[in-house]
Amino acid sequence: MTSVLSSPLRRARVLRLAATALLSAVVGGCHLLAPLPIPTPFVPHSAAPPHLDFTGTAWELAAMSGAPINSPRAPTLEFDLVGSGGATGWSGCDEYGAQITLDGGRATVGAFTMNPQGCQAPTEQLERAYVEALGAVTTYRLEGDLLALDGAGGTLTFRRAVPLPGTTARTLLDALRATPWAVVAGTGVATADVVSPIRFGDYILIGIGQCGFSGRYSLEGESGIEIPEVGYDAMSCGSTEADAARDAVVRLLESTATIDLTDAGTVVLRGGSGELVLEPVD
Hints:
Helices cover 21% and strands 37% of the residues. By secondary structure, it is α+β, with helices and mostly antiparallel strands.
């Protein structure tokens, strides 16, 4: 059932669902987390780190100053999908937000916002050490799916929460993240051109623009995909025609079971409600 985000509380619920999805992947050890070894020592690159668009990427803390994290809910770091420089995550005890910019090896971390929930030691000690270290970060290093943030508080080493390199799911994820996607056709979608383009992060998708929507997704195996819930960013798109088109697209997204990247460069999602075809935005 589609949820209409008619209040800030409803919008927050969708964001919490997304955060919960990532935490569940971390706790359950599902295939989303690449079991990459932490290099010892983690040698800095001699030049600036390789370029990565951090927008929409999701990371799990694997080690602090070389010490592996031994916690059922390790801290996480997720960069927002709209490119505002905002980041959110789980500190070990609480949800947090911060402005974080990573560019050319330099890191800038702004003020934190926290949603205190409280916890007991040693988890509280982990949170305190993590927040202090993250707030003192000044540089970063990148090696594959490992990200090291360095500063006066030590080194935070994160592992990206994505399918393993070289797998079909990873190839598909990289293609989805590379560009916004326009809806060109879909079962029951009479006017596809009025629907917002879709942008994909590591586990979040959003419809960009006035007629927007957002939700979470996970890739399963070679062609499976699950999109359990998609919420609206506004009550109305401004016209009956646009509202109907968005409703149809959201219905198709929520029923999707398989996803294919065609030779023509389009993405086709199929499920119980029909088929949705996307193409890269020029």
